[in-house]
Amino acid sequence: MEIVVSGKRAKVRLPDLSILSEEGYATLVGQRSNTITQEMPPPLLVVEVVSPGQDNRDRDYRYKRTEYAARGIAEYWIIDPERQQVTLCLWVNGQYEDTLYTGDTPLASTIVPDFKLSAAQILAFGQN
Question: What is the DSSP code (8-state) at residue 126?
């Protein structure tokens, strides 16, 4: 699924995972492509897994963060296997507030309230 963004570096992003509202999903039904345009409701949650390299790190921590914020995406998770951490960016009063997760503390998602996985458990999925 593509998300149209307004940035100098990209016009669309392809997140590793997106969670839509029912309204957002309904706008895609019958469309020719799975592209979320500027006129459609943004995803509730977007997850990106950082690939190795500084360019990829900059893209996920800086550029995508700015682009997703401009779309008003409520939560943006950055899963970083190299640093063994998950950053949960939560949309609060017009900006993202970050919570860094490492180890066994479960993520506190506002979108997936019963989410019980810790950063260690999430990162372990990529090692299998």
Answer: T
Q: How does pLDDT run across 19-68, given as a tens digit for each residue? A: 999 999 999 888 888 899 999 999 999 999 999 999 999 999 999 999 99
- Which strands form 35-36's sheet, in the order they lie side by side? 12-13, 2-4, 35-36
Taking CA atoms, 30 is separated from 61, 116, 118, in Å, by 33, 34, 36
CATH number of 2-125: 3.90.1570.10
Tell me the C-alpha to C-alpha distance, in Å, between residue 94 and each of 48, 72, 74, 90, 91. Answer: 21, 8, 10, 10, 6
Burial class (CB in 10 A: 0-12, 13-18, 19+), 48: buried
Write the pLDDT tens digit of every residue in 67-98.
999 999 999 999 999 999 999 999 998 899 99
Q: Is 56 exposed, middle or buried (0-12, 13-18, 19+ CB in 10 A)?
A: middle
- Domain ranges for the chain, please list them: 2-125
